[in-house]
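Example record

The entry below shows one chain as it appears in the dataset: sequence first, then structure tokens.
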Amino acid sequence: MVLKPSVETYAAHAVVHIQCKVGYQIISSNTRVTCLLTGKWTPLHGYCKKILCPSPTLPVNGGFTINKTPYIVRTIVTYSCNPGFNLVGQKSNICGNNGKWSGRLPSCRATTCSKPKSPGNGFVKIQLGQYLVHSRVWFGCKAGFTLVGEASITCLAGGNWSNKVPLCMMRQCPPPLAPPNGNFTPQAASYSVDDGIDFKCRVGYSLVGSTKLTCMENGKWSDDFPVCEEIICPSPTLPVNGGFTINQTPFIVGTIVTYSCNPGFNLVGEKSIICGNNGKWSGRLPSCRVRQCPPPLAPPNGNFTPQAASYSVDDGIDFKCRVGYSLVGSTKLTCMENGKWSDDFPVCEEILCPSPTLPINGGFTINKTPYIVGTIVTYSCNPGFNLVGEKSIICGNDGKWSGRLPSCRVRQCPPPLAPPNGNFTPQADSYSLNDGIDFKCRVGYSLVGSTKLTCMENGKWSDDFPVCEETTCTAPTVEGATLEPAQGKYEFGQNVTYRCGSGFVLAGPAVLTCSESGQFDKCPPYCLSLTCPKPPQPLGGVVTTSTGTYNFGTKLLYECEPEHELVGSRNVVCLIGGSWSHEFPTCQALG
């Protein structure tokens, strides 16, 4: 028990309230005692009883665990479900100080899987209303198709199926043939519809034919099998003042040509080349050239690179001046076959910018003279004028000033006028030199005149103010088509419809709309013919049609007489636009 208040001594007539510790409740009709004059307390008829919660209920298809017994205050009950069921509600409850559990009893619901889809060209053998855990589904394919994947799948405890839905694939193609000196991948026991194989020749051979074949729905490969032909490079060229040796003939892939030069000449280029798998030599023809040029001279206030002990034919040197100097002459010299440099050595001259121009109604100051690289010119204007442009310019390493000459201009233009059915931006209290305004008309009107005006040096705007006129469009003419409605001009937002005459079909948009720009919103359509020209009869063969006419969709079938072979497509179709789908085939005599 606990006394309230709790002190060491109590005076006569003091009243003390009796309370129980957490987890206990007092069993008494009177929870107070009083200190009597005799130094004793009035009798207490009661006691503290431990608080217990009732036994927790077991959820259907589930169970629970507890962290202590009996079910005293703060006892925790943790619920769980049997395999194939999911817990719905609170996972745990706590015994409270009121002798009741903290939450409601959760429930265990059966786990289900989603309805499986039928495979393309296949079906589910038995359809169920609900697919519980351990439910099994069997699949089948239509005639002419083979099941690829698991024939059945099972609903797992997590609500997922054990495998993906299988596929129904068409039947296979015959095993492919590897070309001599080549191979193909992948190599498999069988090949189904849409399976592909890639052909490749071994080094030194070139593939002639399709590199990739595909197994088609009719069980045949998409093309004939390719062949591998041996690769041979052309005869190598003999360098002037030199020769070469080879390690084998003919010049097949891997043949090495080794070049050498006559006495007194140096080989410039690759010493050897190899016949590659593309039928070409690996490098360019080298040359035999005379040797070395004299050491170059560096110009005053400059230098050159690279600096080497000697310079051979085709060696180059680059000249450069230090900052503030300009190179006069060639920036690059090359050692030539005659042992001389390709040009005279250049010189470095000090860079000077021209005298800066004085702006009208203004002036400038400079920080140094003469006008060498780095000199700064600072501009200013007379009273009543504004500086327009860069305030200062610098003499650059190219001998030119860094910016254009600024100007000193008078201030402000008169307020602009907004056109009827239009407006302008920005709208300001005043407009200074070079300020611009942009005009725009409301929807259905077009701007006639300049869309942008600028305040000029003379205090006037750069052009007359524009006007806004109602927007109209002119419909483009389409050969063989009529317009609805047919009229000269169309208002903004109005539609025009194109229709083609008999024997033609419309290609492109049939309806155009007059846009805000005064142009229709799309490119005009055109009329395509639905009739193809009469096909010629092949020499040594016949051609028949599927309809007896030569309209769109008509198919031509070509056949050759005995002892003749068809060259080209056997089937030709009339396309929209009056053209045939292929060139007409021919019949060539055999032998």
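Notes for this example: The chain has no helices and 54 strands. The longest strand covers residues 76-81.
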